[in-house]
Structures are given as structure tokens and as C-alpha cells.
Structure to design on (111 residues):
């Protein structure tokens, strides 16, 4: 009888543990999804914040692979906004490297 009770208790604990893990995974997914949405919203507003060092009228939003391009009288700036602990993706790092190595061109295309 005691063995049967012990087995039932272990099975119940395993069921509770599995349910808790599923809830934890779901919660982490929702939090991550919310953080991504927050970041995308902030990207749209950053050029209009007090800390933005350029005239926001010169900013053009791209979204992907970088957030946008800032056009100034004296130059062009590629802009990527990050919030929290976010970092550049591999693709964004490659773009940054190409810009830093001056692998940038202007092409006029006529149709």
C-alpha cells in the first residue's frame, strides 16, 4: 500500500513539474515577443527623442536590416537603434563592417 502511494505521489509531482515547465516556456515566449514589439515601437520613436543627435526630419526608416538612414548636410549616417541588452545581428555586423571599410557606393539608375 505504501509503495502504491509513493508511486502515485511521484507521478503527481512529475505531472505538476511538466505543467510548470510548459507554463514557464509559454511565459518566456510571451515576454520575448513583448520585448520585440516594444523594441520595434521604440525604433519608430527614437528619431524624435531628446537624445537623438540629428535633425529627425532627415531620418528615413528602413526597418530591416537596419533601422534607418539619417541624411545630413555634411553626410549620411546608417542608424540602428537598440534597447535593453539587444546587440547587432550577424547581418548587421557585416553591414557595419562594410561601411567602416568604405565599401559603400552611390548608383544612379535610369530606366
Amino acid at each position: 500500500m505504501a509503495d502504491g502511494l509513493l508511486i502515485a505521489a511521484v507521478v503527481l509531482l512529475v505531472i505538476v513539474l511538466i505543467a510548470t515547465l510548459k507554463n514557464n516556456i509559454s511565459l518566456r515566449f510571451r515576454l520575448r515577443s513583448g520585448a520585440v514589439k516594444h523594441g520595434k515601437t521604440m525604433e519608430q520613436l527614437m528619431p524624435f527623442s531628446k537624445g537623438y543627435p540629428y535633425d529627425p526630419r532627415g531620418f528615413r526608416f528602413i526597418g530591416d536590416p537596419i533601422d534607418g538612414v539619417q541624411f545630413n548636410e555634411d553626410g549620411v549616417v546608417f542608424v540602428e537603434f537598440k534597447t535593453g541588452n539587444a546587440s547587432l545581428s550577424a547581418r548587421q555586423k557585416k553591414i557595419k563592417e562594410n561601411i567602416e571599410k568604405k565599401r559603400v557606393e552611390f548608383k544612379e539608375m535610369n530606366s
